């Protein structure tokens, strides 16, 4: 299973098509597969949402096509009551080395390396002690 981090600007949310379905653009060198997970970092807010890839065989959206990226339909799993901010990540001894932090979230989609996924999920659970069980189970790899 792959894990990704997507970045949206403040005031903007995940893209929605004309049928009300959410979608995201993924780089082709690490394509998304069904059930992969996507954390969303909203500028000025932090990591505040978790999505699962629900469909990869979808029509390519123009904004993805223009960047030669894969289009995938995604489904919201949940939102975090207390997002992880850039400053919190940058001040953490281990997560300060996380590539999106080092790049100050200046990209659309990052692939989260296996070494950082448990650190991120542990941090999110620590920040959100009442984390919904349906969200928490995705962090442990259960379906």
Q: Write the element-wise H/E pattern from the N-terminal end onward.
A: EEEEEHEHHEHH
By CATH, the architecture is named: Roll
CATH topology: ph1033 like fold
Under CATH at level 1, the class stands as: Alpha Beta
Estimated radius of gyration: 14 Å
Entry summary:
The protein is an alpha+beta fold and 143 residues long. The protein has helices spanning 62-65, 86-91, 99-102, 117-127, 133-139, and strands at 3-8, 15-16, 22-27, 37-42, 46-55, 69-84, 109-111. The mean pLDDT is 87.
Helix/strand layout:
Elements: E1 3-8, E2 15-16, E3 22-27, E4 37-42, E5 46-55, H1 62-65, E6 69-84, H2 86-91, H3 99-102, E7 109-111, H4 117-127, H5 133-139
Parallel strand pairs: 1-4
Antiparallel strand pairs: 1-7, 2-3, 3-6, 4-5, 5-6
Structure overview:
With about 140 residues, the chain is α+β, with helices and mostly antiparallel strands. About 20% of the residues lie in helices and about 35% in strands. It contains five helices and seven strands; from the N terminus they run βββββαβααβαα. It has a seven-stranded mixed sheet.
């Amino acid at each position: 299973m792959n894990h990704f981090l997507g970045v949206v600007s403040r005031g903007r949310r995940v893209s929605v098509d004309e049928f009300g379905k959410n979608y995201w653009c993924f780089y082709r060198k690490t394509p998304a597969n069904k059930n992969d997970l996507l954390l969303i970092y909203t500028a000025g807010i932090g990591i505040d949402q978790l999505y699962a890839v629900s469909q990869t065989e979808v029509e390519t959206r123009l904004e993805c096509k223009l960047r030669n990226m894969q289009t995938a339909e995604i489904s919201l799993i949940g939102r975090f009551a207390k997002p992880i901010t850039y400053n919190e990540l940058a001040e953490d001894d281990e997560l300060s080395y996380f590539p999106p932090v080092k790049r100050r979230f200046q990209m659309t989609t990052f692939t989260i390396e296996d070494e950082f996924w448990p650190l991120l999920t542990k941090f999110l659970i620590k920040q959100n002690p009442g984390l919904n069980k349906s969200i928490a189970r995705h962090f442990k790899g259960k379906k």
